[in-house]
Amino acid sequence: RDKLMKEIGENEMAFPLTFKEWEDVAKEKMITGGYQYVSKGAGSEETAKRNRTALEKWSIIPRMLNDVSTVDVTTELLGNKYASPFLLSPIGMQKLAHTNGEIATAQACKKFMVPFILSTVSSCSIEEVAEVSNGPKWFQLYWSHENPEVSYSMIHRAEKAGYEAIVVTVDTVMAGWREGDMKAGFSPLSLGYGSGNYKTDPVFMASLKDKEEQSIIEEILTHIQHPQLTWDAIAEIKKRTTLPIILKGILHKEDALLAVKYGVDGIIVSNHGGRQLDGVIASIDALAEIKEVIDKQIPILFDSGVRRGVDAVKALAIGADAVCIGRPYLYGLAAHGKVGVEKVIERFIQETEVTLGLAGIARLAEIERLGMKREK
Ligand code: FNR
């Protein structure tokens, strides 16, 4: 037993443990501009910080004297049963973090049957990712107004490759005001273009050092901005696919109600990890408001600021049906590739089980029994 415990201990010690430790290793391994692109928020990072301070203001009021000898975290979502309430948020250009990029992430997700949401601006193709992982996969779409056919074609490819849902990101109609990225040339704003009405600047592109860098920047510039996106486009997208449509980036309860009206299948309450509109409400506070009006009409997913199992339990207790992990897994990828992402996911699940057990909840489905209180 001692030998086994020692081995387990050594295995655990081989990996960073806290979010900060993962981030420190990731920072060491990534190129400076890449690390900055991942870690920073928009503007003065008011919202990025607020996501954390608000989560800390919410406290769990636990229940006692329940048998928690097994804790069941299985989750039903869109008619599928998943082993845990977690998904991985779409994060673009993962080769910035690790040479295997999204391939490694998708493989790690498969191990835990956690849905991986592949970004439109991923560094591996829809089909490449599907080939290496038959685990659950969703596809995130940045709408192209200039060329909707490109968007429809992406949806079609995702459908054909076995992706289970389309996540349309609605909070990125133009690039966020990210000053670090502007300095590093990682933002269209560094070219002086403030809205989606820009063209890729050939002089700027030629100034980039290598081909990979060029293609990465070109991807961002071409795809993320789409200021003309409206509810009508959502209706059009819905017509083109039988896959469920999830809107990512909803913060206002009226928009949540419109999502129901337009027949979408779910929403992700998110402020993009504080990377888009700075000064907006903390994602967890928006969740509490939206939950009240939606009241189980459609599933509500949640991200932004989640750093550990306790944060996820808070979101689930407030009303999220599932929680998406963002930066923590990207740091896992940068630090240790596929194994790093696996470790991050595993620890999220374990800590969630412990948290629920200590809070007296044996089945995630009964989380409503918890009390939740927010300090002013
Ligand atoms: C993102 N996010 C994002 N969202 C999206 O819909 N499409 C994308 O391509 C990206 N790309 C992306 C890159 C990087 C480096 C980051 C950090 C984030 C937003 C992401 O899906 C998620 O909403 C946030 O990461 C959640 O916040 P936390 O958990 O990172 O604080």
From TrEMBL:
The keyword Ubl conjugation does not apply. One of its GO terms (molecular function) is oxidoreductase activity. PROSITE patterns: FMN_HYDROXY_ACID_DH_1, FMN_HYDROXY_ACID_DH_2. Residues 11-376 form the FMN hydroxy acid dehydrogenase domain. It catalyses: (S)-lactate + O2 = pyruvate + H2O2. It comes from the Bacteria. Pfam families: FMN_dh (PF01070). Its cofactor is FMN. InterPro entries: Aldolase_TIM, Alpha-hydoxy_acid_DH_FMN, FMN-dep_DH, FMN_HAD, FMN_hydac_DH_AS. Keywords: Oxidoreductase. Belongs to the FMN-dependent alpha-hydroxy acid dehydrogenase family. This is L-lactate oxidase. It comes from Gracilibacillus marinus.
